Amino acid sequence: MQITSPEFKKNARSALSDTQLQKALGHVRTGFIDKRQASVDALPEFDELRDSARAIKDHTLAHLDLYLERYEEKVKSAGGYVHWAETAEDARSVILDICRAAGARTVTKGKSMITEEIGLNEFFEKEGVRPVETDLGEYIIQLRGEHPSHIIAPAVHLNKEQVEADFRRVHDHLRPNRDLSEPESLLAEARRVLRSEYFTADVGITGANFLVAETGSSVIVTNEGNGDLTQTLPRVHVVVASIEKVVPTLEDMSQILRVLARSATGQDMSVYTTVSTGPRRPGDPDGPDEYHVVLLDNGRSSMLGTEFQDMLRCIRCGACMNHCPIYHAVGGHAYGWVYPGPMGAVLTPSLAGIDKSGHLPNASTFCGRCEAVCPMKIPLPKMMRHWREREFARGLNPATQRYGLRAWALFASRPRLYHLAASFAIPALSFFTGRRPRFRYLPFAGGWTRHRDLPAPENRTFLQQWRSRQAAKQEAQA
Amino acid sequence: MKQEISKRPRVGLFVTCLVDLFRPSVGFASVKLLEKAGCDVEVPMAQTCCGQPAYNSGDRADTIAIAKNTIKAFEEYDYIVAPSGSCAGMLKKHYPLLFKESAWEERAEAFSARVHELMSFLVDVMGVERVEAAHEGNVTYHDSCSGLRELGIQEQPRRLLSSVSGLQLKEMRDPDVCCGFGGTFCVKYPDISNKIVAEKTDNIRASGADTLLAGDLGCLMNMAGKLQREGAEVNVRHVAEVLAGMDGPAIGKGES
């Protein structure tokens, strides 16, 4: 997809003035947070589970090559194929080859952020393959020609009235006066329309929440069951997953599952947890004839061994964005690429380049709520700061900011100079306020005074006053 | 053990640059509370700022220069106390990270181990359970992010406030959600910051409190500035001022 992260500020401004979006974002601010809290409160060992989930991923990442090779071996011995894709382009062409070999015209898709990352739908359309998203949220945004605004709730930026209008527009073969006022009726209609697609599709594509090295299995968690239909009904099943999805054993997967749904939606478990191992075996009642796994790197292996390695623990639950005040304010599209919110602010510069996404790690108050709720305890603010350091070192941030900062730092590391400057700053400021207790406007502080008043300083700095008091005290004692 | 308790600890007050420049009364309130709690308070003149503006802008070299200055200025004290969770968090949690595997590592760690935020120092270190102060009215308390999540400050200020006579604590909705200040964030991304602080001031006004308190001047100036721009009649103060019984003009309301 076209990256618009360089225009983050512009994106944010239009998001802030979009009343439909702001209404929809209200649900993020309440729904996810309360549900997560309730499910965490009900599990006293939740924090210990986070530690153990983190340890599993840290261990896996430290031996990633070993577990990936083990996983490949197991997939092959179960009769499946593994395709290694270094870049998005490699992945797209491998997937297209599989589809072409299967003579596929229609491809059903389970919800997958990785296929967003590699821009698979646009590519398919260009190549004459029709992709059909089967997750309700993904289906809705596909109808609208949009991208997900949230990694687990792709259509969270929409209100149900907007979805109703889209369904009436696109499903024009259905009775025009049907009732679509409730979310349930929208769901039922989407389900009806999609049902026939599952049977006409030649290839089903899913992502994976986990790849299990021990068994060569891919695992998806869903709430609608669409993933199961996508991967069992077509003749060919293609799993597209990035390399850090691998975990050593089924037991490890189960441990991480315990924190995943709780952090994401506040469920103990997602409705469906589906483990697939290879193609249909003789005697199996269903399953695909061919089972392929496309393992995507796309920049991840170069994060290993750097200060960004911890990011590869991410299990894509969305808790960080659900709790992020910036995400609440502007929604996911403003971030301008596939991954929004705090995890996106760290991952996007790694995958798409800091030159284009410099705003993302900067647009954070470092409130730390993302790290506090992250089931994998990823130090997101710390890594955003690392990006700012790299940006600063490469001179990527605006010159005014850099010079302003350097000038200030010159004073701040020299106390005498600093206090001298501070003692001049106050009279200079009162030149603007007169005797008013606050500023409504101040030159060079427009960012502040556009939206709020600035309290005026008192007459003298604390240190000046303290010094006079101490001097007076000593004089009195003498 | 007894001997140690009977000795008055020497506390170096890290005033913070915002308090120094904008709100000296917070500094005096801190001194008063610390002395009441049995400390000898000194204010080293060689202090400036904790360095967060540089640190959070990715300017590590300047941050290190500022941090060295702070460490040198405060090395001789038993404790270093700051009336700000954000600055105390910087001194306590982030300084050691700046000097990992350098000649200053031990020095930085020894320094950071003695740093405390004011509320946490009073309650957790000095064992203060109540203050002698009066404040008539309903107050609401905002948990500033760094103090809350880096230093675990939540219950301490509320406990001390509960001992202030005449004071009623009215919790707002989401007191632990960011106010949108974020240091340089609020001027780099003013529109987003405005949206966040507007949400916060809605919650403050809905609480029915006539006074808003918090432990960080940056957040307080942000919320006060927004409340005043909205024409709200809420007084905004640093929690230390109320606990010290100092009732000068509220933030943004005094004669300058």
Number of domains of chain B: 2
**CATH architecture group name of the largest domain in chain B:** Up-down Bundle
Portion in helices of chain A: 40-55%
Largest sheet of chain A: 6 strands, parallel
Distance between the termini of chain A: 76 Å
In what order do the strands lie side by side in the largest sheet of chain A?
Answer: 1-10-7-4-2-3
- What's the shape of chain B? globular
Quick one: how many beta strands of chain A? Answer: 12
Oligomer: heterodimer
Overall outline of chain A: elongated
Strand content of chain B: 5-15%
Low-confidence stretches of chain B: none
The number of helices of chain B is 14
Most residues in contact: chain pair: A-B, 71 and 72 residues
Q: Can you tell me the CATH topology of the domain at 43-296 in chain A?
A: Rossmann fold
Can you identify the CATH superfamily of the domain at 43-296 in chain A? NagB/RpiA/CoA transferase-like
End-to-end C-alpha gap of chain B: 48 Å
Average of the residue pLDDT scores of chain A: 94
Radius of gyration of chain A (Å): 27 Å
